[in-house]
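Morning F.,

Quick status update on the modeling queue. The single chain you submitted on Monday has been processed. Sequence for confirmation:
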Amino acid sequence: MLHYAVVFVVVALIAALFGFGGIAAGAVEIAKLLFFLFVIMAVVAFVVSMVRNRR
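Structure tokens below.
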């Protein structure tokens, strides 16, 4: 998922470079959403791992 966030950031940078503001804004929003989903899933996985190792 983090890979897709990076891909969308690169797409946004390239689109902004060529002057496609709408496409760049859309790609940035998707990248932000994917990044935050990745962070939330990583934290949940960490907490679940800590709980399982405590037993």
